[in-house]
Structures are given as C-alpha cells and as structure tokens.
Amino acid sequence: MPPDGVLPFGPLGPEPFSAYVHIPFCRVRCGYCDFNTYTATELGGGANQSNYAQTLRREIALAARMMHDGDASLPTLRTVFFGGGTPTLLPARDLAAILTALREEWELAPGAEVTTEANPDSVDAATFKTLKAAGFTRVSIGMQSSDPAVLATLERTHNPENVGKAVRWARDAGLDVSLDLIYGTPGESLDSWRRSLGDALELAPDHVSAYALIVEEGTKLAAQVRRGEVPDIDDDDHADKYVLADELLSAAGYTWYEVSNWARSAAHESQHNLAYWRGYNWWGFGPGAHSHINGVRWWNVKHPTAYAGKLENGDTPGAGYEKLTPDQAHMEQVLLRSRIREGLPIAKLARPGSGDTVDPGVIAGLIARGLIDPQRALAGTIELTLQGRLLADAVVHELLPT
Ligand SMILES: C[S@@+](CC[C@H](N)C(=O)[O-])C[C@H]1O[C@@H](n2cnc3c(N)ncnc32)[C@H](O)[C@@H]1O
Ligand code: SF4
Asked: What are phi and psi of 261, to 5 degrees?
C-alpha cells in the first residue's frame, strides 16, 4: 500500500487486475529459503497466526477505500494468488475468510484463477474441500524432490509420500494441481532428478514449476557451502537437469510457457504468473508484499509485527514506492517478456523515445547461435529456443545493450 496513503497512478487501463496475498508463516525454515517468512517462535505479539486473517482484512478494506477515493471504481480480479511462507499453515476457514473479504470489496471476474501454495505436510482432504467451496480453483504443492537424501539436504521436513496424498485430495475436491520442483541440489545425481520428475509425472499434475536451486546469501545453505560442508552448485549440472526436465515433461505432453514453467494445456498456464511477466497490474497484501500499478511499484513493511501494528493504528502498511522511468520500464519488459513463450515483440526492443530499432545484426547473431526461434523472429517476435532458455540471461543482455 502506498506509504503516504495517496495512490500515485492514473486511471486503470483495460488489462486484467490481480491480487497477491502473502502468508508469512512456516512451521520450520528450510535451509535454502530466504523468503519473508517466520516460525511461530520467531513471532509474538500482534503478529500471531490466529489473528492474521483479521489483520489482512484491515488492509483489504483500507486498499479498497483508497482505490475508491483515487479512482472511483474497483477493477474486478482476474487472478488471486496466496503465497508464502506456507498459506496452508492457516486454517482453511481463515484462507476462505480472506478470499471472501477480497470478493466483497473487489469482485472476482468470471472464471477467475484463485491459487494457494501448499506444503504437503499441512493439508488434508477437508482443507481442499473448504478451499474449493470458498472459490479457490488451483493449488500449488511444494514437492521439490522425491529423493529423501535431497530433501534432507534442503532441510525439507515433509514426507515424500504426503505429496501423492495431497494431490489426490486436491483433485477429489475439484482443484487444479501444480507441483513445485527444485533441481541442482548439492549431491543430487541426474538419476535422482530423473526419478523425481518421473514421480511428479506419475501424479499427472496440470502444471509443473521446476526451479534451479539458488544458494541465497544469508541462508543456512549458503553458510554450509561457504564452510565447505556442502558442495557449491554447478552451472553445467543445472543445464543438464534443465534439458532433462524439458525432455521428460515434453514427452509427457507438457509445454513450456515460461523458462521454469510447463503446463498440460494452455488452459492450465498460470494466469497469475503470466500477469507478472506481461507487466499487468496487481495489488500485494501482507508484510513485505510488493504491488505494481501503471508503472508505479510500492511495498509494505517487511516484518509481520510492524505490519500488524500499522494496521491496528489505522495507518497504511506501505514502506516505500518508486515510479519506473521509461528506461526502467523498458528494461523490465524485455527481461520478463523474453522469458515467456508468447515472446517479446521485436518492435518493443527500441528504447523509449529513441526512435532506434534494434540492430538487425543482434537478432541475426542470436538466430545463428540457435538461441532464438528463426520463424518467430522473422514474424517479429523473440522466442527462446531450448538452448536460448539455458542462456536466457545472456540473451537479455544482448537485447539490452548499455
Ligand atoms: C513459498 S514456497 C511454496 C510453498 C511452501 N512454503 C513449500 O515450500 O512447500 C515457493 C517455492 O519457492 C521455491 N524456492 C524457495 N527458495 C528457493 C531457492 N533458494 N531456490 C530455488 N527455489 C526456491 C520452492 O520451490 C518453493 O516451492
Ligand atoms: S521453502 Fe516453503 S516451507 Fe520452506 S521455508 Fe521457504 S516458504 Fe517455508
């Protein structure tokens, strides 16, 4: 929420609008994760889990009031995403109440996508039935790997058998299912990754996200790597595992639509994530949540106690905002759009106000090295090839000469 309570953007355009709801709680912290999340022992006072739904409702009501004041009409929500942390650590009735509060103020668009992330250890059949009845359509389950040794290195506490149960319960309730996988954990062999992919595919999810493990500064894993207790990650190993993932997922009928995301059909692509990559507008609720509307970005105070305190006092929880310059907005669009299969129109590569077009030699070079699809480039769009997806950052660097 903007820190001064004034919405620093003009009227909304016709593009879809989204909401992100951050749930900053985990039962234990996994050794590799640096998300804005806390265990019960790390939190006290007004930030506990039992009154968190109530705190969020305050921000939802305040946001709606601010938008009414600023623009008169609230856009309908095309997508809603509950992320964390572990949203399913809250009772399902609390998640349902938060969604109801959003619907009362903002209204869901017909066919809206409503997702929650879930940890396989914190759900049961009743959880998913309650969520479905409240209007959730989709669940994203943190599987990561099916190899107990890899899960131990990641300090994941879930039992791999619970993933299958969670998928069945979600399906029985009528929810779409996505699985999150991580590859490249130190000590993971190519065969172990192959088995994890096979086990994931056996569960026939609608959608799969496969992320290369990042050793984030400040995590326990980073300290273990620094002390030499755990080997560092290896870029070649990551590349081999990415190629294997694409091969097995494609053979099973899944198509990539973003570098780390595959779907069973276009209807199962995550509209919420696509909204981020397409640069649409969204409002982020909860501690540390970021928002973006019309090129203005803002973010909330990070700590749940500070967040709850602000709302209890009737203040906005906003901590800061920035307005993207035309150059920044352009860079961001190139960065995000070049990673999705629908691609980046070559016409959009020109720097704003420069009148320049991109050097045709750059495009020809990328085609010659097999990094972008020649047919799509001829038709005016950048789409990464498999080789290009492996080198996505380098491609973006070439498309954005300094
Ligand atoms: C908020 S978590 C998902 C829900 C739940 N907390 C869980 O972990 O099961 C979002 C996803 O971020 C990914 N993630 C977190 N830290 C990561 C890291 N350092 N490298 C790669 N992926 C990471 C994990 O795949 C995780 O499933
Ligand atoms: S990966 Fe998920 S469960 Fe583990 S600490 Fe991060 S948010 Fe929590």
From this structure: -135, 135
Q: Assess whether the previous peptide bond of 85 is cis (omega < 30° from 0).
A: yes
Which ligand has the shortest distance to the CA of 84?
Answer: 1
- Residue to probe by mutation, ligand 1, list 180, 216, 221, 224, most atoms within 8 Å of CB: 180
Nearest CA to ligand 2 atom 6: 33
* Residue from 187, 95, 193, 96 nearest 143 by CA: 193
Tens-place pLDDT, residues 113-144? 999 999 999 899 999 999 999 999 999 999 99
Q: Could you read off the pLDDT of 72-105 as tens digits, one per residue?
A: 577 899 999 999 999 999 999 999 999 999 999 9
Taking the C-alpha atoms of residue 204 and residue 215, their distance in angstroms, rounded to an integer, is 29
CA distances from 229 to 222, 225, 232 (A): 10, 6, 9
Q: Which residue has the tokens 């954990």?
A: 185
For the entire predicted model, the pTM comes to: 0.95
| HSE-up of residue 32 (Cα within 13 Å, Cβ side) | 22
Helix or strand or coil: residue 211? strand
Q: Which ligand is nearest to the CA of 214?
A: 1
Beta carbon of 83 within 6 Å of any ligand 2 atom: no
Give the Cα separation of 395 and 370 in Å (integer): 11
